[in-house]
Write a structure and sequence with these properties.
With 217 residues, the chain is α/β, with parallel strands linked by helices. Helices cover 57% and strands 13% of the residues. It has a five-stranded parallel β-sheet with strand order 2-1-3-4-5, sandwiched between helices.
Length: 217
């Protein structure tokens, strides 16, 4: 099985050195490049074609949020995990809505970091406790809930689309959904694309947020 190709972007040399040593102990993950700012990261992506990027929230020249937005527009299949020192709900909501596949604190245990990297490759997103809490709190705001209710009346999903949406939220892959529903993987991917088009979200994380907001899960 091919290793997961990873790029790290962080301007803190000491942290970067420690993270490099840690990543090199993970048998399933290969560190292919390192960057010290967002612009350097963007330059490295076409050279190394990573599966996952760990990107620091605060960096010089171009920060992690700006870099993530560009990456998701140019390379939507690359998974991005934001790294931060801060468990701030407003920041978490902002980065997740702008395309990040997950959000990690810099003091996470090694096994959590490894799990997050492997999970975003397999499932498309990684939600931990503080991310889930931040997103649910945002959903429950009256102004957000009002907008959700209006959209819910306008949007029509088919029975099959709802089935697939629920399975996506349970972190099933396209192959697993196809097997469970007796469909081809191509058919599942078609439904997934239509869900993205109908809901207007950018990725699987957006679909999960949509499903939570509309109480499909």
């Amino acid at each position: 099985m091919a290793k997961i190709k990873l790029i790290i972007a962080d301007d803190q040399v000491q942290f970067l050195n420690g993270l490099r040593l840690l990543i090199n102990t993970f048998e399933t993950i290969e560190l292919v490049a390192e960057a010290k700012n967002g612009q350097e990261l963007l330059d490295l992506i076409p050279l190394h074609q990573p599966d996952v990027i760990l990107v620091d929230l605060k960096m010089p020249i171009m920060n992690g949020i700006e870099a993530t937005s560009i990456i998701k527009d140019k390379y939507p299949d690359i998974k991005v995990l934001l790294l931060s020192m801060y468990n701030d709900e407003s920041i978490i909501n902002h980065v997740m809505k702008n395309g990040a596949n997950g959000y990690l604190l810099k003091n996470e245990e090694p096994h959590i970091l490894r799990k997050a990297i492997e999970t975003v490759v397999a499932k498309g997103f990684y939600f931990n406790e503080y991310v889930s809490k931040a997103l649910l709190k945002d959903v429950r705001q009256p102004s957000v809930q009002s907008k959700i209710n209006r959209l819910g009346h306008e949007l029509k999903l088919t029975r099959r689309e709802v089935e697939i949406l629920k399975l996506i939220c349970q972190q099933y892959t396209s192959n697993e959904i196809a097997e469970q529903l007796y469909l081809s993987v191509r058919t599942v991917e078609g439904h997934r694309k239509r869900l993205l088009d109908k809901t207007g979200v950018r990725n699987i994380v957006g679909l999960v947020l949509f499903a939570v907001k509309h109480q499909f899960v």
